[in-house]
Inverse folding.
């Protein structure tokens, strides 16, 4: 049986993503506490695959995942997107204005800014996952504690939904990726994606020079984000995703040109575009 790790327990959005990416009965889903533990388990061979959130349609890239992948030998091998519906949940029913502590993952807190702005006296506490926030509230005896979590988490931890659909936008989605120690080279389709990271020289026009080959070859960059480089203050790398497969002649030619124009380029893997 193939083991697949995700963070946050059975109530987490990551669990739903893992079930969607690995629906077959021959996969064992393994719940771990943090994203870092998921990466470590995949790198050390304790599991075959890991599942991590990588981008919110509202809050943008999940910085922790980007940085963990940059520092690991893992490759992205699959992706999927799931709708995210946030609810305010507590141990027992209470008026929303009586909430004094709100726990959730930083991305979920960012996606519920209107709710949090209305709770002027509520302290916000970040947790490793939304499911962990629900678990902490379920174990707390302090009145006025609540979590922003899924209905699934509320049901599993015996919590009451005191406010439904508290996200700023109902169309919120989170993109999840499956990661592994191998790289997929199993075919070329028009709907494939290739993730990569590169570092440019620190000079005017360096980023333009680096990505110009993609425009000239007619390749769509579906994502481009900057991340600071640790231990090198105010220097940055760029994480990107292109539409295409590196074994296809056109993306391969463009990546070859880019490699000659940047200080460092690393491909994080290729995978079919998710739904």
């Amino acid at each position: 049986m193939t083991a697949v790790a995700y963070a946050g327990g059975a109530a987490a959005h990551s669990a739903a993503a893992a079930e969607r990416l690995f629906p077959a009965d021959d996969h064992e889903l393994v719940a771990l506490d943090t994203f870092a533990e998921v990466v470590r388990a995949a790198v050390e061979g304790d599991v075959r695959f890991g599942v991590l959130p990588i981008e919110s349609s509202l809050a943008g890239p999940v910085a922790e995942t980007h940085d963990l992948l940059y520092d690991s030998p893992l490759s992205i091998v699959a992706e999927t997107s799931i709708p995210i519906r946030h609810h305010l949940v507590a141990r027992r029913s209470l008026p929303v204005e009586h909430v004094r502590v709100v726990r959730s993952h930083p991305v979920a807190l960012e996606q519920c800014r209107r709710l949090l702005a209305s709770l002027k006296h509520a302290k916000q506490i970040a947790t490793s996952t939304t499911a962990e926030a629900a678990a902490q509230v379920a174990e707390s005896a302090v009145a006025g504690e609540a979590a922003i979590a899924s209905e699934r988490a509320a049901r599993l931890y015996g919590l009451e939904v005191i406010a439904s659909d508290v996200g700023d936008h109902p169309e919120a989605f989170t993109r999840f990726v499956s990661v592994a120690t191998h790289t997929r080279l199993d075919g070329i389709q028009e709907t494939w994606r290739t993730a990569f990271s590169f570092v440019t020289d620190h000079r005017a026009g360096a980023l333009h020079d680096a990505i110009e080959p993609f425009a000239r070859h007619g390749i769509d960059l579906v994502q481009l984000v900057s991340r600071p480089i640790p231990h090198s203050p105010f220097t940055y790398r760029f994480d990107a995703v292109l539409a295409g497969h590196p074994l296809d002649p056109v993306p391969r030619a463009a990546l070859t040109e880019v490699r000659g124009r940047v200080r460092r380029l690393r491909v994080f893997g290729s995978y079919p575009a998710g739904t």
Remarks:
- The mean pLDDT is 92.
